[in-house]
Design a protein that fits this description.
5-stranded mixed β-sheet; single chain; 5-stranded parallel β-sheet; Rossmann fold
């Protein structure tokens, strides 16, 4: 396991509070499928000296089977609770009975109980949330129990903390993200910073994909091998994520697919509208798309709405991009070739990757560069005070600038990104940036920034030059 230091520290801090106060705590851990939630929680419970049980809900299993599995989890723990055989040799018949047994297990010492795939257990018994709330309020909260609820249904796990749900006010939410670029670097020792970002764009930081990428000679070699295997993790993991997120929301998934498949990388509303509706049906489609966008940005957290840097959040100059780099890669290079890959013609997908990878990654890296600049505003001397960085474009899209970085008072930096491994930013490209700076409101005094793996070409000049290794430092690498 790579990284996760901050996450493990948060788990440990919650357990310390349970030990110190003798009172229970509930953590609601959410994150996309395959992102490493279970691995991180397992690592935590295995490394601490506290009795624990790790239960995983069984999809579509009836309640009695869920409770049998719960008893098996207590009996099979590497560090079982006291009197485990007395308490769990016979499975409980109701969740209320199970909670009473937890209370007996924690009567003399702290315990950790993990309910993984919690949404599946709730599906089997919709009263589970309410029963847990009653047991927590009357008994469990007064005992040294750390209860960790885990779920891949991001929307459902987010709703646990809403005011109209039984566990409102009792749960501390936690999000397990994919590995960040610095954590990916830990898994790929010896590779260049640009190669680290390549791996990040392809895998999205999903641990299993990163592991597969680490076993290959390069990111490109990994992709070419995976694309000819219809059962490779790179091909199927996205489908697992999407199936988990969209069990009954076909129209929302259709909008997500339109955004992900859009060739311009970050489409606007009209691009999405054109992709999923015929000209005569656009009036009705607009409402459905607007509703779907709210779901994708909110509960699903799968897209970001971008406006030009410095514009109001309600600006009509909106564009949409996927938040997950791996899904963005999958829609661009795999989704459209799934049929080819399944009929042993992955070579077609490989050819498309070879033809478009270089130009695509040059666009796909841009939001991650801007995130790095925002982070570096706290530590990098030449970016001191930067609080927000993003692209800027004018109303008719005839001019776009990759980077406009702002402090609390003004525009500090205007920049260009040329993600090329062998050719630096040249004099003409810097001249274009100067002209663009003159068009951006209030940017006249901004410093010029060039972001390029090769730096500047001979004869070109910039106030600040950043390479991939400088950007990687933004995540603590």
């Amino acid at each position: 396991m790579f990284g996760r230091t901050e996450l493990l520290d948060r788990f440990a801090g919650s357990l310390t509070e349970v030990h110190k106060t003798g009172k229970g705590r509930i953590l609601a851990v959410r994150g996309r499928r395959q992102v490493g939630k279970s691995t991180a929680v397992t690592a935590f419970v295995e490394q601490v000296d506290t009795p624990h049980a790790y239960f995983t809900g069984v999809k579509l299993a009836p309640m009695h089977r869920q409770l049998e599995t719960l008893a098996e989890a207590f009996l099979g723990s590497r560090h079982p609770v006291a009197d485990v055989h007395l308490l769990f040799d016979t499975p409980p018949t109701t969740w209320r009975e199970a909670f009473n047994r937890w209370a007996l297990a924690a009567r003399n010492a702290p315990v950790i109980v993990v309910l993984d795939e919690f949404p599946w257990a709730v599906e089997a018994d919709p009263s589970l949330e309410g029963e847990l709330q009653v047991a927590w309020d009357t008994t469990l909260s007064k005992l040294p129990i750390l209860l960790i609820l885990i779920g891949s249904d991001v929307a459902m796990m987010s709703r646990l903390v809403e005011h109209d749900r039984p566990l409102f006010g009792r749960v501390t939410p936690m999000v397990v993200p994919a590995l960040n670029p610095a954590e990916v670097a830990e898994a790929l020792p010896g590779r260049s910073a640009m190669e680290i970002f390549d791996a990040y764009l392809v895998t999205g930081g999903y641990p299993r994909l990163v592991e597969r990428c680490a076993a290959a000679k390069s990111t490109s070699a990994y992709v070419r091998t995976a694309l000819i295997d219809p059962f490779s993790d790179l091909v199927i993991s996205a489908q697992l994520v999407l199936d988990a997120e969209f069990t009954d929301a076909a129209s929302t998934r259709q909008v997500l697919t339109a955004i992900g498949a859009e060739a311009v990388t970050r489409p606007g509303f009209n691009d999405v509208l054109s992709a999923i509706s015929d000209p005569g049906e656009r009036g009705a489609a607009q409402t459905a798309i607007t509703r779907a966008l709210k779901i994708l940005e909110g509960p699903k957290d799968l897209i970001r709405i971008e406006v030009p840097s410095g514009a109001a959040s309600n600006s009509r100059l909106r564009r949409y991009r996927l938040t997950d780099p791996y899904l963005q890669f999958w829609f661009r290079f795999i989704a459209r070739h799934l049929e080819d890959i399944s009929r042993s013609r992955g070579d077609i997908a490989v050819a498309a990757f070879n033809a478009s990878w270089t130009s695509w990654r040059g666009r796909a890296i841009e939001p991650h560069v801007n995130e790095a600049l925002t982070r570096l505003g706290a530590t990098h001397p030449e970016l001191a005070g930067v609080q927000q960085a993003g692209p800027w474009w004018n109303r008719d899209n005839s001019l776009e600038v990759d980077i406009v970085a702002r402090t609390a008072e003004d525009i500090a930096t205007v920049g260009t990104i040329k993600w090329r491994p062998r050719v630096g930013v040249n004099r003409a490209e810097m001249a274009e940036l100067v002209n663009a700076r003159n068009v951006i409101p209030h940017a006249g005094g901004a410093r010029l920034l060039a972001v390029c793996p090769s730096g500047l070409a001979p004869g070109a000049s910039a106030d600040i030059v950043l390479r991939p290794e400088d950007l990687l430092a933004a995540w603590g690498a």
